[in-house]
UniProtKB/TrEMBL annotation:
UniProt cross-references to SUPFAM superfamilies, sorted A to Z: Cysteine proteinases
Gene giving rise to this polypeptide: AUGUSTUS-3.0.2_07214
Annotated TM spans: 6-25
Name of the protein in its database record: Cathepsin O
The entry's keywords: Disulfide bond, Hydrolase, Membrane, Protease, Thiol protease, Transmembrane, Transmembrane helix, Zymogen
Record GO biological process: proteolysis involved in protein catabolic process
Classification of source organism: Eukaryota, Metazoa, Ecdysozoa, Arthropoda, Hexapoda
Pfam families the UniProt entry points to: Inhibitor_I29, Peptidase_C1
Domain of life: Eukaryota
Length: 329
């Protein structure tokens, strides 16, 4: 016959099954479950436990940021959600894909600022429909948005002139342009000044062999403007309608989790916050929120197939602080 101590031991171990074990095998919280789904969706793996926890921490912070950004919106406004950048802390995203103190790099070409009355322009312009916009590029971790935005605009202007769309060599500009820092940053106005002053030949992508100044065939910039048009975005609309796409400096800090819609909130226009450069390829004044059509360089898996939309007439994201238009020979 079993002793009382045996019965007590049995009861104790059964109690462990009901109370202790369930606590110890507690599953991941909801955010971690979302993170695991996120890793599958974006085909990411973090085998190192420490790295995994760091990325999970960044992901949780992105969830909070997304909730905040989506708290103020209306029909058609920007929508924020999970992107390939959502497992980065904001400072990591900035250091990898943006530039600091971009406004300080324009000292030799301070944009002029002036005001104009609104001129009559077409309600909608989209240079993609006229075969004047090449494919979406991906700059990766190379901070050469300044080179991409200018070369994209040279490509567009050359296509408008010749009725033939060709890719030019961004790498040539990264390697060769003076007064800029390659993948460590640069400025669109400074670049255009250098291209014009040196009468630089911008080679086709397929022709560039890695040596500066060796190209005999290519495209030359005829002339350009670089101006501050805050309060005069009608001039930007007129340039887009009459001349072609524009290269602009911009503040992209809050774009980390952008997935679509028109950005009209949460995007500071202060010139001291400029940290990126993009191309504007058109606008739509007939939309519920009139907007620019902006081409980015973070791949086709960013935003709307590589594009995003920014509200007109608000200097949203600083889009009118530094505006460049050009013509080619």
């Amino acid at each position: 016959m079993a002793s009382w101590s045996t019965y007590l031991q049995a009861i104790f171990y059964i109690a462990l099954l009901f109370f202790v074990i369930p606590i110890r095998i507690k599953g991941p919280d909801q955010a971690e479950s979302q993170f695991q789904e996120y890793l599958k969706r974006f085909n990411k793996t973090y085998d190192d436990p420490s790295v995994y926890q760091n990325r999970l921490h960044a992901f949780k912070q992105s969830l909070q940021t997304i909730e905040t950004l989506n708290s103020k919106k209306r029909n058609g406004s920007a929508l924020y959600g999970l992107t390939k950048f959502s497992d980065l802390l904001p400072e990591e995203f900035f250091q990898t894909y943006l530039q600091s103190n971009l406004s300080q790099k324009t000292h030799s070409n301070e944009p002029k600022r002036h005001h104009h009355k609104r001129a009559t322009v077409p309600n909608k312009v989209d240079w993609r429909e006229k075969n004047a916009v090449t494919r979406i590029y991906n700059q990766g971790s190379c901070g050469a948005c300044w080179a991409y935005s200018v070369i994209e605009t040279v490509e567009s202007m050359n296509a408008i002139k010749t009725n033939k769309s060709e890719e030019l060599s961004v790498q040539e500009i990264i390697d060769c342009a003076g007064n800029n820092k390659g993948c460590n940053g640069g400025d669109i106005c400074t670049l255009l000044s250098w291209i014009k002053a040196t009468n630089f030949t911008i080679q086709r992508h397929a022709d560039y062999g890695g040596k500066c100044g060796r190209g005999s065939a290519g495209v030359h910039v005829r002339d350009f403007m670089c101006e501050g048009l805050v309060g005069s975005e009608d001039v930007m609309l007129r340039l887009l309608a009459d001349n072609g796409p524009l290269a602009v400096a911009i503040n992209a800090q809050t774009w980390q989790n952008y997935i679509g819609g028109v950005i009209e909130y949460h995007c500071d226009g202060d010139p001291s916050k400029l940290n990126h450069a993009v191309q504007i390829v058109g606008y739509d004044l007939t939309a519920s929120i009139p907007h620019y059509i902006v081409r980015n360089t973070w791949g086709v898996d960013f935003g709307d197939g590589g594009f995003l939309y920014i509200a007109v007439d608000k200097n949203m994201c600083g889009i009118a602080n530094e505006v460049s238009a050009l013509r080619v020979l």
